[in-house]
Specification:
heterodimer; A: alpha/beta; Glutaredoxin; Rossmann fold; Ubiquitin-like (UB roll); 5 domains; 5-stranded mixed β-sheet; 22 helices; 39% helix; flat; B: alpha+beta; 41% helix; binds flavin mononucleotide
Chain lengths: 600, 129
């Protein structure tokens, strides 16, 4: 027979350590005693996140979510929730500070799982629909926003809703979307364009790719609404060629939309014409910058041009152009459909709505998360991300990619939005969030970003071309143990000059990783310079491997593993590392079964 | 299908919604939905899809639809699969491989019991419901 209820006991490694097994057994016993074992199934699950509040138990179909459960609680949960259908109040998760306004009307709060810190507007369809089947999108209110925009709101009404919503661009800068749209709408021109920025160049970011792969129609619908609003008949999606699946899904979606008359001439019989084409980018980071992107579409070399003129007034082929990011667009159908007021009730006052982050690095549950603005880093890392991998200590999070900075322990409880991040010297960026643990070296990480910027600088302006190179030289010098205290001052000086003098956002922000880490991790730089030490053991010129002769039994394993022939010694006698030959690969250290090799 | 008018679009939407409701109340069809974003595919989602289809054929299990969807965001446990069996809670499984796929068909779809150790939580409430 079909079981009627299910008890899910979190079996993630953190919960497992805190008695998941005992809880599981305890439930089994209670069910047995009550004669319910055929009606209720107890299962162990994968990690639910929330490891700080573990062990977690979830009851289905009631959807009750219990935290900090003890084996003794099984009895009460079975009697109350399973038998009587009542929640056990004391075990329920309670969220003190909601980021979604419970007073907002038209929204049934009882349906929200408060323990689920995520709130999905942009990713609303990802994982629900078949992205290659337009009917599934339509069944989930798809193209209803377009319908409403054309038949009820009209261009002014759309601007009004977007303005009320307070939506700010998700491509990084956080500029109010309605101002761009209103500007383009206000210029009279025979041809206008709507462009979608799907270049997504930040290392570690893949939110836009996933959105396009999982829900391509949401972006097509939004661009069509934008076209109708500003009076454009052509849309262009600029997407990097490294995203073949996203491109394919977009092509399939566009073909289906055309077939249904949702793109093309006389859309839905309303007389409005709009079509979209795809342009492939070759994957240069600077081509994500809007003016460089437009030059690239025009067939020119992807280099930024000075603003003003702003694209909204004079963009693609000198025509007024609305350019927005994928995630910005994906919000639009929901804003149009549910209204600007609804959207504004989510997130913070100055940054309404949600933000999608690609959570990667030394985190247990890496993945895409969408949270209301104002959610703290602690909630993202510990409640959703399941904490730091291998139980290591949290060190910092890098946001904003090569243009951003670090967020450290002292700001773990800062609610994340555009302004808060700028205040603490980082930036929202497009949403890459790379978690670092005590095993990461700050100098090494910044060196990675600076190498990226040196490669990606287009070379047009000297502050960026020369500045990034000089910064990388200093960082390399420091990680090699040859840095001086003056170098640190020089780096700050160069960074400040680049901020002021570079032509585009790339150069203006390329020094941010340096400046931000100088602010929060100066000690670590000084350690590299003065003590010639890299505590995390990442700067290989500053580390040494040594064999403790009292622990070494002469098994010869290390000398066999050493690729440089740097380890010598007789069998059953203590071995020795020739530091001059050692290439610091760490193979001996990883291989030693007796803990005789140490990394200093 | 020919180009649609506003009325046709509305009719299509309502028709599809009604179809989904009917599916939920009728309770005949089983749906197996595989996350096929770049991340899922890289982790082996295509092999999982094949495993489901082959096993459904081999065991002659009826009324099962296998579909694809985009990424749910649970990168750390890809490939992910959602299983909808009438009368049972919709369930998301992670770290699915060919063996787990067979187990899901045997225990969950046929045996009507959840499969231990591979269940994960949907990351958020559906705002469109
Ligand atoms: C170096 C650089 C790279 C950028 N890369 C991207 C990108 O990959 N995707 C994106 O949407 N915006 C990127 N931007 C921001 C765009 O210039 C622009 O602000 C954005 O497309 C505007 O859309 P929004 O208002 O919807 O955010 C980048 C900016 C700079 C300076």
């Amino acid at each position: 027979m079909v079981k009627k209820s299910y008890i899910l006991v979190c079996g993630g490694s953190a919960c497992e350590a805190s008695k998941a097994d005992a809880i599981y057994e305890s439930f089994k016993k209670v069910l047995e005693d009550e004669g319910l074992k055929n009606d209720v199934q107890v299962v162990k699950t994968g990690c639910f996140g929330f490891c700080e509040k573990g062990p977690i138990v979830k009851i289905l179909p009631e959807e009750e979510f219990y935290v900090e459960v003890k084996p003794e609680d099984a009895d009460e949960i079975v009697h109350e929730t399973i038998i009587k259908g009542r929640p056990v109040q004391r075990l329920l998760y309670k969220d003190k500070d909601l980021k979604v306004d419970p007073k907002a009307d038209k929204f049934d709060m009882s349906k929200i799982g408060f323990y689920q810190k995520q709130f999905r507007i942009v990713l609303r369809n990802c994982g629900f629909i078949d992205p290659e089947n337009i009917d599934e999108y339509i069944a989930r209110d798809g193209y209803q926003a377009l319908e409403k925009a054309i038949t009820q709101l009209g261009p002014d009404g759309i601007i009004n809703e977007v303005k009320t919503s307070g939506l700010r661009g998700r491509g990084g800068a956080g500029f109010p979307t309605w101002i761009k749209w209103n500007t383009t709408k206000g210029v009279s021109a025979p041809q206008k364009y709507v462009v979608c920025n799907a270049d997504e160049g930040d290392p570690g970011a893949y939110m836009d790719r996933s959105t396009l792969e999982g829900d391509p129609h949401s972006v097509l619908e939004a661009m069509t609404i934008a076209g109708y609003c500003v009076g454009a008949s052509k849309g262009i999606i600029y997407i990097r060629a490294e995203y073949p699946l996203a491109i394919k899904r977009l092509e399939v979606a566009m073909a289906q939309s055309r077939e249904y008359g949702l793109l093309g001439d006389d859309i839905l019989g309303t007389g409005f014409n709009f079509d979209i084409e795809i342009r492939l980018g070759a994957g240069a980071f600077v081509c994500g910058e809007e003016t460089a992107l437009l030059r690239s579409i025009e067939g020119n070399r992807g280099m930024p041009t000075p603003k003003p003129p702003f694209p909204a007034v004079e963009g693609l082929w000198h025509c007024p152009t609305v350019i927005n990011n994928v995630e910005t667009y994906a919000n639009i159908p929901v804003i149009v459909l549910k209204g600007g007021e609804w959207f504004k009730s989510i997130g913070t006052e100055k940054s309404p709505g949600t933000k999608v982050f690609a959570l990667t690095g030394k985190i247990n549950n890496s993945g895409l998360v969408e949270v209301p603005m104002g959610t703290t880093l602690r909630e993202i890392i510990y409640d959703i991300g399941g904490g730091i991998r291998n139980g290591k200590a949290f060190k910092a999070v890098q946001t904003g990619g090569p243009s951003g900075g670090v967020i450290t322990t002292e700001n773990l409880d800062t609610g994340i939005d555009f302004d808060a991040l700028a205040r603490i010297g980082s930036m929202m960026g497009s949403g890459g969030m790379i978690v670092m643990s005590e095993e990461d070296c700050i100098v090494d990480v910044v060196k990675f970003y600076m190498t990226f910027c040196v490669d990606e600088s287009c070379g047009k302006c000297s502050p960026c071309r020369i500045g990034t190179r000089k910064l990388l030289d200093y960082l390399t010098k420091i990680s090699n143990g040859n840095g001086t205290m003056e170098d640190l001052d020089k780096m700050t000086e160069i960074g400040m000059a680049m901020k002021k003098a570079a032509l585009c956002g790339l150069g203006q922000t390329a020094a941010n990783p340096v400046l931000s880490t100088m602010r929060y991790f100066k000690d670590e730089y000084i350690q590299h310079v003065q003590d010639k030490k890299c505590v995390a053991g990442k700067c290989i010129n500053l580390i040494r491997y040594e064999i403790d002769p009292s622990k070494c039994i002469g098994c010869t394993l290390c000398s066999k593993r050493c690729p440089a022939g740097a380890i010598t010694g007789e069998k059953k006698m203590a071995h020795k590392i020739d530091q001059a030959k050692c290439v610091k690969c760490g193979e001996c250290y990883k291989g030693c079964k007796f803990g005789a090799i140490s990394k200093i | 299908m020919a180009k649609m008018t506003l009325e046709a679009l509305r009719a299509l939407r309502e028709g599809k919604k009604a179809e989904i409701d009917r599916r939920e109340t009728d309770g005949k069809d089983v749906h197996i939905i595989i996350g096929m974003g770049t991340c899922g595919i890289a982790a082996g989602a295509k092999q999982v899809l094949e495993a489901f289809i082959n096993e459904i054929d081999a065991k002659k299990i009826e009324n099962v639809t296998v579909k694809q969807t985009g990424c749910m965001g649970l990168c750390y446990v890809e490939p992910t699969v959602e299983v909808k069996v009438p009368g049972m809670p919709d369930t998301i499984y992670g770290k699915v491989d060919a063996d787990v796929a067979k187990k899901i068909l045997k225990d969950h779809v046929v045996g009507k019991k959840l499969v231990s150790d591979h269940i994960f939580d949907r990351p958020s409430t559906d705002i469109l419901k």
